[in-house]
């Protein structure tokens, strides 16, 4: 049973990683736009979102 759960979790992670990469790319574009417009609030929000996405990505890659 434990092996089945691990297999399901691995499959879910494999599906989530490409989506997560797209989310990171989108948030980086959002951060870039905020930097160009010198919007400090938007920059900080994007940085916080990127930090959360980065942590999730690192967990999934292990």
Could you characterize the architecture of this molecule?
With 62 residues, the protein is mainly alpha-helical. It has one domain (2-61). It is built from two helices and no strands. α1 (2-36) packs antiparallel against α2. The mean pLDDT is 87.
Write the layout of secondary structure elements.
Layout: H1 2-36, H2 40-61
Helix content: over 70%
Helix vs. strand class = mainly alpha
Fraction of residues in β-strands: under 5%
Question: What's the mean pLDDT score?
Answer: 87
Which keywords apply here?
single chain; 62 residues; mainly alpha; 2 helices
Quick structural overview:
The chain is mainly α.
């Amino acid at each position: 049973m434990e092996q089945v759960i691990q297999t399901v979790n691995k499959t879910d992670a494999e599906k989530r990683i490409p989506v997560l990469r797209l989310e990171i790319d989108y948030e980086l574009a959002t951060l870039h736009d905020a930097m160009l417009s010198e919007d400090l609030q938007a920059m900080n929000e994007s940085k916080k979102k990127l930090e959360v996405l980065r942590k999730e990505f690192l967990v999934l890659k292990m």
